[in-house]
Amino acid sequence: MTCYAFAGLRPVVSPDAFVHPDAVLIGDVIVGAGCYVAPLACLRGDFGRIVLEPGSNVQDTCVMHGFPGSDTVVEEDGHVGHGAVLHGCRIGRNALIGMNAVIMDGALIGESSIVAACAFVKSGMQVPPQSLVAGLPARVIRPLGADEVDWKRNGTSCYQTLARVSLATLEACEPLTAVEAGRKRIELFSAVTLQAMRREGES
């Protein structure tokens, strides 16, 4: 990882968290046990504190930042999709933030809620637990079913496995110049889209 001390504060990373070498951590950043921080994520704790609680993940090109004196927090088992921006907000335990969503200052995403891709959650919005949120600006669409919450948990479990496997096996290498015969596939994870899960349930 690219890691910078700022104003005397150094980032803190649990030994069993995985932070990709191309992620950037600055200043007052705390990454808990079993977390996964993907390539090109930027956790910038120069104004306010940035906290990833145990088992959470922040995916590629995400940005976490906040105003002076604020905390930007992803609670335990939180899941932040590619390209999301979190600014001075709190993501509740086991909640999912969809790709390219923006969560603004003082917003609270309730436990086990899902914020849809590309949603814009306004400053101060309070999302009840186990809710689906979508739109520009975002609004609560409906409660989530138990099957949807289970689907989310499975996806987060894949990222927790990814953190462990990355710690054990990720290494820089030179690419091959041709595809080898019988090239194997990675078969460490089991996840499907929400739509595919629903189709399976209907069949």
Automatic annotation (TrEMBL):
Q: Which Pfam families match?
A: Hexapep
Gene3D superfamilies, A to Z:
Hexapeptide repeat proteins
UniProt name for this protein: Phenylacetic acid degradation protein PaaY
> Superkingdom, according to UniProt?
Bacteria
User: What NCBIfam families would the database entry show?
Assistant: PaaY
List the source organism.
Thauera humireducens
UniProt feature coiled coil, ranges? none
